[in-house]
């Protein structure tokens, strides 16, 4: 959808390597979020940001870090990827009125 | 634990059937409630929402009413179409930052 893009769309990486996923928005929205989607678990919040350099942990933050140096970009880093981090990752922007989601990044850790 | 509970799927219906997908929540205060839909290979899209008790959200023939007394927000549609086949997520706001937390999703299959 216009306004929020994720890159890459697909990635295969090896166990133990660092991986960074990017979320870019053109809506100038203050709040941004990273979720992972897994069968049987729905969407679970990893980290979120409520402004430049202001971030907080979500439900499943272990093994992940984030950075927000500009309003438009929110980066999710897997410091040392593990097979349990194979998932589809979604970025979102929004607030209590509702979120807009990106199209997702499918990450496979082999 | 997950404070949004929705019925297990998959749900399979014939075209033009009546649809109900149940959703209940636990919360203190008055969260906003949502239904999101995810079509294959895509991200989630907001389908409808309600922000206070007795509000009814509606969109594309779908409806859900915010029931505080039963802490429920069931999704309904009077006559489903094949194009409604998707995964549906119930969600609510949580915490001082109004983060949105999601149920596990219900997969819906509509047969022609």
Account of the 3D structure:
- The complex is a heterodimer of chains A (110) and B (112).
- Chain A has strands at 4-7, 10-13, 19-25, 32-38, 42-51, 54-57, 64-70, 73-78, 87-95, 98-101, 105-109.
- Chain A is mainly β and 110 residues long.
- In chain A, strand 7 and strand 8 form a beta hairpin.
- The N and C termini of chain A lie far apart (30 Å).
- With 112 residues, chain B is mainly beta.
- In chain B, 0% of the residues lie in helices and 50% in strands.
- Chain B has strands at 4-6, 11-14, 19-21, 23-25, 33-38, 44-50, 56-59, 62-65, 75-77, 86-94, 99-102, 106-111.
- Chain B is globular and about 45 Å long.
- The model of chain B has no long low-confidence stretch (mean pLDDT 93).
- Chains A and B meet through strand 5, strand 9 and strand 10 of A and strand 6 and strand 11 of B.
In summary, what is this structure?
Chain A is mainly beta. Chain A is built from no helices and eleven strands.
Question: What is the overall number of helices of chain A?
Answer: 0
Shape of chain A: globular
Instruction: Note the gap between the termini of chain B.
Output: 37 Å
Q: How many β-strand stretches of chain B?
A: 12
State mean pLDDT of chain B (0 to 100 scale).
93
Largest sheet of chain B: 6 strands, mixed
Q: Nearest-angstrom radius of gyration of chain B?
A: 13 Å
Number of strands of chain A: 11
Q: Helicity of chain B, in percent?
A: under 10%
Distance between the termini of chain A: 30 Å
Greatest contact between two chains: A-B, 28 and 21 residues
Estimate percent helicity of chain A: under 10%
